[in-house]
Amino acid sequence: MAQTNRSMDIGTGLFVLLGFAALGFLTTQLPGSGLQLSRSSQSYAVIAKFDDIGGLKVGAPVTMAGVRVGQVGAISYDISVYKAAVKLTIDRRYDHIPDDSDAAIQTSGLLGANYIALSPGGSDTFLHAGSELQFTQSAIVLESLINKLFASFAGNKDSSASKDSSANKEPGDDKKGSGKTSK
Amino acid sequence: MTDDDAVVDVREVHYAIGGHAVFTGLNVRMRRGAITAVMGPSGTGKTTLLRLIMGQSVAQSGQVSVFGQDVVHLKRRDLYRLRQRVGLLFQNGALLTDLSVFENVAFPVREHADLPEPVLRALVLMKLQAVGLRGAADLMPAELSGGMARRVALARAIVMDPEVLIYDEPFVGLDPISMGVIVRLIQSLNRLLGITSIVVSHDVREIGAIANYSYLLSEGKVVAEGSPAELNREQKDVVRQFMSGSPDGPVPFHYPAPDYFEQLLEHPRA
Amino acid sequence: MISLSHRRSLALNAIAKIGGVSLFLLRLLGQCVPALARPQLVIRQIYNAGARSLVIIMLCGLFVGMVLGLQGYQLLQRFGSESALGVAAALGLIKELGPVLTALLFAGRAGTSLCSEIGLMGATDQLAAMEMMAVDPVRHVVAPRFLGGFIAVPLLTAIFNCVGIYGAQLIGVTMMGIQPGTFWSQMQSAVGLSDVNEGIIKSVVFGATCSLLAVYEGYHAEPTAEGVGLATTRTVVTSAVLVLLFDYILTAAFL
């Protein structure tokens, strides 16, 4: 009986180890680098205000030249300037970002998720915790783009139509006038 | 017998299951240190009586006291404490199938007492010796015959040195030799250790040899009580039919049915 | 046609059952800590529920992963996004297929065995004998089995997921020719910790549900051969329905 207990203990131990190893793999290897940046001691926060953030979500990447340098930490609404205030959490390794850099909300692929791309400016002073990015570009909302496109088509149509009708009016008027006088 | 002598006292108990009345005014008293037999035809609720005594079932009215305590109103913890003083031998032994014979007997001790292993081992082996199965300590319940399983269950029932032992149909399905063994064990446990014994059985002859006092139950009441000799002299029809084992009498041979002739001649049921 | 009164009693039965199971869960939870005082019992049940289910879980995980690889590749090829196979397989497994399939397999293999074990102990008076020996059968028999299943299921799910992802990778990289680097890097950038957490929480909830149902049905089964058989069937059916119901609720909660 003691013998079976021992092999059962070993079997159970192996099973539990295997299970936890699998869990560990799933939680650390899979999400990639997302795990490291969430620690506040390794990052600093700056603010950027946008007219329209589109589909930007918390946790979306912040990139420079395509390389991920941080993520969106929090999104809120600033009522005093009627703009969205986005907190960017930037990795401490990247502490030489000029404070006149431009933050633009872009879309990855045609229908992908929104992320923030930073384009460096030329200033000698750099961003630090609490700085605000002055130059921002809001997200391009596809629907308003399409609306503008249709509006410009309709505008062209209207102007050409009014030209034609004014050309047609004069002969008609003359006819009327002459019709009256002949009686 | 005075009330002080009664280890188990059942008074005016009415008990019904699902609308069907099992007991209608039952009065039973078990004296300390005696072997009391509870007999009756099948289905009179002998096992139900045991459940009432052990607190597994609750009577609708009446009083059930064990060791002077009212079983009906006991809290679970007190009920458990009470049950540690009573040993119960089930009809089929009810050994735990995943434990060996030794572990089965050791089970109550491991749960309720904190004995060092060597002491526990000695205790278990002594109890197994008392029932004559010390050599079977390492067998599994599946490897035991019916009689042996029941003896192991008995060893388990006495391992905590209870004051009362209840035997639920201990003679059923045993060959004459095993039956003789069980009878002898019940007797010696009672005489040598002074354990109050309650035996539920319908084996008139075996019981008659060892009981001090017997109750005969029928139709939810006690119809006769007394020493085995007194019961043998009893003239009531019900008692006579049971004691002599006649197939027909107050307990009818035929289950209630419509007229025989009519049923044979009527059309077969659709 | 079910008559109105029949429908009413069906509804009442269902409500009574929910109440019964909840009360039993409370009693069970109260006995779980005392049950841990006998680690041997719990370890044995983790072995029964977990280690002995490993083979079926790993086999099924591998096959599911391979099917995901095949189907996913076929589907993504239509949109020119074959490189996203890793993402599709990983997310599909971690968030949905892993927890749900593991729970259903567990209910079928271990749930039925738990239920019939306890039911048989009831039918042979072993549970009653324990009660008479002043040992609470819930503490000694039921709680360790519940804990065994509860601990084993999340671990089994994690193993299922890993084996599944391996299976998908096997198909995608070895058979379909996707670059292994693309497979893994895409997966890593798209799978977030919240997805993994969602899967873990689901597996914990499903494990508790299946274990609870198995021990409840076993404990309350009719003490006959037929009764235990019916209880076993009920365990599997109810487990399946509840797992899928909770899956919907949890998925919606995580959106």
Give a written overview of the molecule.
The complex is a heterotrimer of chains A (183), B (270) and C (255). Chain A has an 8-stranded mixed β-sheet, with no helix packed on it. Chain A is 40% helix and 27% strand. Chain A has 2 domains: 1-30; 34-143, no CATH class. Chain A is α/β, with parallel strands linked by helices and 183 residues long. The model of chain A is unreliable at 33-39 and 165-183 (pLDDT under 50). Chain A is extended. Chain B has 270 residues and is α/β, with parallel strands linked by helices. Chain B has a domain at 1-85 and 203-270: P-loop containing nucleotide triphosphate hydrolases (Rossmann fold, 3-Layer(aba) Sandwich). In chain B, helix 3 packs parallel to helix 5 and helix 4 packs across helix 5. Chain B is globular and about 75 Å long. Helix content of chain C is 86%, strand content 0%. Chain C has 9 helices and no strands. The chains are: A alpha/beta (183), B alpha/beta (270), C mainly alpha (255). Chains in contact: A-C, B-C. Chains A and C meet through helix 1 of A and helix 2, helix 6, helix 7 and helix 8 of C.
Summarize the structure.
The complex is a heterotrimer of chains A (183), B (270) and C (255). Chain A is of the alpha/beta class and 183 residues long. Chain A has two domains: 1-30; 34-143, no CATH class.
Number of domains of chain C: 1
Oligomer: heterotrimer
Order of helices and strands of chain C: HHHHHHHHH
First-last Cα distance of chain B? 61 Å
Q: For the terminal residues of chain C, how far apart are their CA atoms? A: 40 Å
The rough form of chain C would be described as elongated
What CATH architecture of one domain in chain B do you see? 3-Layer(aba) Sandwich
The helix fraction of chain B, in percent, is 25-40%
Structural class of chain B: alpha/beta
**What would you call the shape of chain B?**
globular
State mean pLDDT of chain C (0 to 100 scale).
Answer: 90
What is the count of helical runs of chain C? 9
What's the helix count of chain B?
A: 10
Number of strands of chain C: 0
H-E order of chain B: EEEHEEHEHHHEHEHEEHHH
Low-confidence stretches of chain C: none
